[in-house]
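Morning, I've got a small favour to ask if you have a moment. You're getting the sequence in one-letter code plus the fold written as tokens. Thanks so much in advance, here it is:

===
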Amino acid sequence: MDLITLKKKFKQHNNFLKIFNHDKKAKQEFQRLEFLGDRVLALILSHEVYNRFAKFNEGRLATIFSYLTSSTTLSKIAKKIQLDLFIKKKKFNNISDKVLSDFIEAILGSLYIDSGIDVVRSLIVELWMEEIIKNKDLRRDSKSILQEWTQANGLGLPVYKVLKKKGLDHQPTFEIELKVKDFDVILGNGKSLQIAQKKTAEKFIKKFIEEDIIVK
């Protein structure tokens, strides 16, 4: 799949091209298309995840869905179809992962209006299939396991809060707390925020969650 093939999916090619306009009016419409595309993507991917992972609980499904709809994944999809190169030619200054994911959502929103839900579903399944399949064997870290468990048990999302950052700028240590509804606060630390969160999640798992519950 490349942009030329994608463009051919539009009945009105101008509906594809106008996404890349610069003027103020076009920007407002872009944001509206982005809003719509985000919802269309969420509907189709949640349905795909539900159907393809029949044995997974709600928490595991939510983790996979979050990964598939993240800016990182959308940016990866954008680069796969060389959307980033096309945007550069249009002289957009900032091409961050967030910008690329916004363009993907706007394209999906525009295609939905132009050609309908079936065409959009076909495109999303084609573009995301590799990432969907990857999730069958995706190794879960402690944060993912904890999030799956809390959501499956109606406890919402774990909340991580930085209490203190100390040490040198190039060798910091983060001290954080982890809150889960109805459970005691857990404290932890690490040499990066991500490491600190994972270590603290591990502490929670070891203290409160039976091994046979989480290793599924």
User: Anything to note?
Assistant: Confidence is low (pLDDT under 50) at residues 211-216. The beta strands are 159-168, 171-179, 186-190.
